[in-house]
Model the fold of this input.
Amino acid sequence: MNTSTPARTGLFLGHRGFRLLFTADAISQLGSQVAVVALPLVALTLLNASPLEIGLLTAAGTAAFAFVGLPAGAWVDRFRRRPVLVAADFSRFLLMGSVPIAALLDVLTLPHLYVVALLAGVGTVFFDVASMSYVPSLVARDHLLSANSRLEAVETGARAGGPALGGWLVQLTNAVVGIAVDAVSFLLSAVALARIRHVEDQPVVVKTRLRRQIAEGGRFVLRHPVLRLVGLAGFLGNFWESALLAVQPVFLLEHLGLGAGAYGLVVAAAGVGGLLGSSAASWAGARIGTRRTMWLPLVAGYPFLLLAPLAGSGWLVLLYPLGTFLAFFGGAMQNVAQLSYRQGICPPELLGRMNATMRFLIYGAMPLGGLAGGVLATALGFPAAVWVIAAGLLLSILPMLAPAVRHLDEGERASV
Done:
């Protein structure tokens, strides 16, 4: 039986289950963002990785979205979601914990980092799909936008504080310490999730083959006129964002000559923008509607990405964080709106597969983007590669300007 009554009265922030989920997400997201700085710095400083090898590392960390994203949704729909969340966190604790141990024993290698990034990515896929499918069982449908706004604020707040913390830790100690912090964060998150007493409904036992279940989720998304456009825009946006993440460490650390501490602060600007954008999403949805919040913030924010390749020495370095701050402000606001929209229109029994299909479409582009970033940096150098990536990100918003999104009917908007 579903026991989330407090959540369904509108007091979900006081509901113990949602509060623990919120806490667990905050801890693991912060640790993961510390690792965003620390992992490439481990490869650069300890293993002398090249730009292409950094691109491969970025690709390894996101390859799971392409290879296991769709099956993950079908599996998540077959089980209660909380045990999946705990298992995913604990597995990532073990994987990330192996890096500082290997470094301490002086046996750390790039292949080790690739394997850890790849398998931790599998854990992330299952965690993300299960988490998105778990929220609607804790929070009433008419509170989804507000709940997702808070959870998105956690993620983007971690993007703001995590890189700065990671840069500070690396500067005071070394990059391996940042990876150790990430490992511990997953363990603490698993403990918090294990303490949730909310009882989920038992999933209906199905005898349908896994392949058919996966296809049902795919059909629901691809036949929906709005969801398929959201998926296409997400694919393009994440392709170019991953390319940016792949070239960012070398561009800022070597091309612009930033130290580890300054690098963390510059990277954190995108997280600050995302934090403010996600926090404003509920306000924007109430005033301009989900329909406009799903495209207008992108149009207003993404053009500022063209400031990033103009960054240079002295005060010109500020153009990079300014551009990413404004772009991620709009991107986070849009992300809350589209996630709440798709949760609101999807039948509960399809939530896992719908979310997995969307994650496959949106995040499956990330390993390709990581590789593309490494190739662009190697072939074009800096800042030409950053120009190409910024232009690609700007063009990625075009699917969200289609009439199906801009003219979303008021009935559907009201349901989220």
